[in-house]
Amino acid sequence: MPANSVTSLMGNRYEVFVPTIGNRFYSGGDPMTSWSDTYEVGLLELKPGVRPADLVTPFRQVLAKYTKDPLTKNLEVELAPVRDYYLKENNGAVQRMVTTLSLIGGFILLMAIINFVNITIGTSAYRLKEIGLRKVFGGAQRQLVFQFIIEAWLVTLLAALISVGLYQLLIPVFDQVLDTRLPSVADFSFAGIGLLLSGVMIVGFLAGIYPAFVLSGYGLVHSVKGKVGGVKGGQGLRRTLLVVQLSLAIGVFISTLNVNRQVSYMFNKDLGYDKEQLLVIEAYPKQWDSAGLARMEGIKNGLLRLPAVKAASLSWEVPDRTPPGTFDLISLPKAGKQRLSVESIMADEDFATTFGLEVKEGSFFSSHTAYLPGEIVLNESAAKAVGLTPGKAAGAIIQLPDGRGQVTVTGVVKDFHYAGLQQAIEPLVFIHVRDTKGYRYLTVKLNSPDMSQAVSQVRAQWKELSPTAPFEFNFMDKRFAALYRSDLQLKKAAGIATGLNLVIVFLGIFGIVAFTLTKRNKEMAVRKVLGADLVDIIRLFLQDYVGLILLANLIAWPLAYGVTNKWLENYAYRISQDIVPYLSVGVLIFLMAFVLIAAQCLRTATANPVKSLRMD
Fold it and tell me: 583 pLDDT band (50/70/90 cuts)?
């Protein structure tokens, strides 16, 4: 089942569909009949002509009729189109990646076009006599325009055919980079083929527009002489295009470095819990009653007898998303005595030990005594929101709304990241699984240098304790990495794009410098005869490009800063930009350009000046 299918909404990969009416799985009755069940996801098919905005008022009226506070005040219905839900969920992570990769692909294509135009401008002097002679023999300008456009299209078509072959060869590589399945060339639709041919036509036209409309418009006399557009002809346009190329390459390079820094920051940041060697087991069967919970606790105790198991915990959630459940509290008078709807996690007394949470005060439930109903544990943000005094929170009594009694705070844990770093840490309350009889995961903390052997031991024990239940598991560090799947894909793709950008830019510089050296061959020979050495010649050419590189940096730096800053705004916890990536890229680009120019100048400067002066 593809990840962007309807069955993957809300991050779940549904494989079995069951009715809710009369199903023993739901011990509390049909969950779809309760208006207060915020876990339900509804799918609506709108009639033709009806827009989501048309339903805002009717939805409010329905909620006001069937729900009670705090749902009536806090619940809001938002319709999300299924066709692009996958792109826009998780704060639009996939959409951002698609947009970014599309822009990078556009930049690469643009720089290739610029290279083509630069080469055309550079070789324009060779075509001027041809243009002049065609005009002498009666050729019209429109025929010349048509000829140059056809030539550009043929070159682009040849490049497209080569690219199709490379695409087919590199499908496995990009499947791995993008974590997807790209279609084979044989599976291209007519629309895809049409899009490719349209791209060939557009790119070919853009690449051939200069020779078609500029060179063909030169005067007859100047064209026949072949003097117009020599070394200086088109030089301003060439320099402008080269600055554009360098600016794009530098901007993409800097942005890639910042993406890498942010991804590294996310994977190295202290999350407030220990994700290493945590084996998360799907707790089957999900029998949400006293008997089912007791049975699962028996399995947990059985796993704890294994030498490779350090700790274990039953819970409804693990730290891989914002908990969808909430718990209502009445804050203390000094906090305004207001109703608070706090995110909640159902867990047992061993959750803090298993996940390595730091208990700031009190205990994580009644860890050393028998279970007591009505106990809760708060994180630091929740304790502050409720109005508890630091150091005096343990044992505090908090009232529940609507006269539903009270709960006792047994402890406070240090704030930890229970969701991605895109989201700020919010108030959180822990409720004991025995209060709700609900569980989904049995998380095991392993303590073994041989993880494969440890998992095998846990699997064997599970099969012995629960022979009819499947053993489905994954590791917490893998679940954590899944939170940043799009960011990891962007990091890989941006790295490849940066390499391609640099290759294209330096191919362009190589072509321009090579052509310029050829045109100025006699000049170099005269300079050598008059005493100029290799260093003087290299310095002469570097002077032409140092200014362009500096200008490209001045253009690219603010653009890269703005784009990176906008991207970083998606993270509540992010790096601070500094000057290091900008200077590093600027210096590296200059050094690479220096080596490239010096290498080409070396060949020209070491040539025999007599032969150069004899050349036509």
Answer: very high
